[in-house]
Please model this.
Amino acid sequence: FSSLVAILGEMIFIPLIVLEFNPMGAPVGIGSNSASTVADYFNANAAVVFNKVCPGIAFALVVGNVWYAFMAMKLAASENRMDVTALPYGINTPAGFLTVFMVQLSIMFIYNPRLIDISPEDFADKTWKGACAANFVGGLFEVAGIGIGNFMRLNIPRAALFAPVCGVGFLWLGFAPLIDVMREPIVGFIPLFLTFTAFFAKGGKGIYPSWLPMAFVMMVVGTIIWWSGGARHDTEKRELNERHKMEEFVRNNYNAYTGVNKMEGFVTLGFDYVDVKYIAVVFPIALASFIETIENVEMAHLQGDSYNVKEAMLADGVGTCIGAMFGSVIPTTVYIGHVRHKAAGARYMYSMLNALAFFILLMSGLMAPVFYIIDPVSIGCILIAVGLMIVQSAMEASASRHYPCLMIGIMFLVADMVFFDHFDATVRVATRSIGRMKGVMNMAPGGGIMCSLIVTAILCDLVDSRFGRASIFCFLACIFSFTGIMHGANYVYPDGRCITAVGTSDSDFYTTDLGELTFSLPVKATHLSWQVTDGKLHDVGFVPDYEWTYIVNDLGFDDPFRCTPWTRDWANATGTGAAPPQCMVCGDFAWGFAGQTPAYSTVAFEGAAGGTSYGKQPAYNPSADPGRMQAHPYNEGWRFGLAYFVLGLISLVHLAFGKMMGIEPIMDNGYATPPVAPDKAIVDKVIHTSTSSTTS
Model:
């Protein structure tokens, strides 16, 4: 539940990123929708989330929980025992966050209402259906994991298998909520205290009675403190510190959504709204999903409940696909928690009750007011517990010699947060550390998922002197780097199209969803991607001519139409409520304050309202303004491809050297030493159970 609340919060919030955090009353539409405001697009998206996405999630959770309950009943019957605990099934938390920011946000940028004539309803609908299509494809990838899942488990170091999910658990489930706690200590410290006494004390069983739902207690305590005025700061996502506004949000959402269900059975999946390039994003998400399934099924094996991993993968994939057909955009999976449920004495019925509870909550429309009633900081503390459990399990299941490699894998996910914060509210480059920005820009594409897996695998094999397999991973990384799947900081397609963030000449030369499927080459940019429609190049906008060189002297402030602080006319600021002051180069300034005439801030709106140029100086000519255009758009993936290829050759040299010197590789694949790792008897039992379950 806590994971779902957090993911829904991000899903509701992301339109504000696309709309550059303009005031809610500011008109941002164009053409026939020129009167549509930020609030119109924001509310249309929220309505889709509560009226269509939530019911779709309900169907996915029912399918999976009922399936896992029957799996537990079948295992109990085959082994003639009654202490079998069903695998927990729910939202795939790591993949859920990746879906919101790497898929939904990217689709929203394609249908940016500031750039194309689109109604708020169509904006929300296309984003939703496109994300459903991507989720459906991800479910198919999960099912495909049946064929390769066991192969991957046997041929990828254990720490590498855990690294992507461990990284998401550490960063987005652990670190990010902890930041919120430190923002609001009055609200968050008691729930944080209870996190460790309830979920980590006494060997993970907690010091409180097993019948006491401590996650619910934490949520209630935090919510009471929050509504008592304990929060100090507001955020860009929620009204957190003014009770009358909080009450208004609850009341409005209760009236708007309770008892309302606009679920569409067998949704027309929006494959037309997504591009093939999203495979580079969807595949790592699906990969993370079925890797997480493998990991959590193995954790259940260690507790004595030996489930068929192939059937679990099938349940996850089918549940995700069915959810997508009914409107869900979030993958579902078996999640960490079996150990906790086992200790509490849960059996198969808890899975059935879980399905029933979520079905009622998500189908009735109650999720909307509940979302605005509960305290997000205490919910974050529950996420901290989940995230740190993932990290703890990963380390306990991996050989200690691979801990350094696992930490490197986590760092790729940390880079995702650092990269995200390198942009200002208008999604333009805003950093004080250019060198650091360029580094994390190469680590973060695709959420860092694929890099976390492959690089960790390479390093583990180097530690174990398995140079032959390390070379295979290096050559695989080479292919992935040239195709944008790894290190996808690529700005130019092979045909010379320059990829822009929001599709106009008013954007920076970067991709909002770094990790697009492409073929990375050292090529020169000749035109902007938005200039080509129907196969024709239009003479609109430009890429300044430049001589392609390997060296890029780019300090970050030369990105296209990026006004530097020193060009702002702080002494003679003019315009309607301009903040910050106008740029002395282009005359650009921000939206006016509430109740005043808005000041248009993009070239796309120049000359609007009968020829009046609100956001530009009267004599400003965008076609004669090359001073702010970045001089050298470039690709980075090919450089990593070459580097990995060289590492592959070096690994082969070390393979020959190792054989000559008699260096024995370690062949245990990074399993932890007993008692954590399963012994041969358990492995044989797992294989026997998998075979018999498949037959049955």
Residues 439-558+630-656 form one domain.
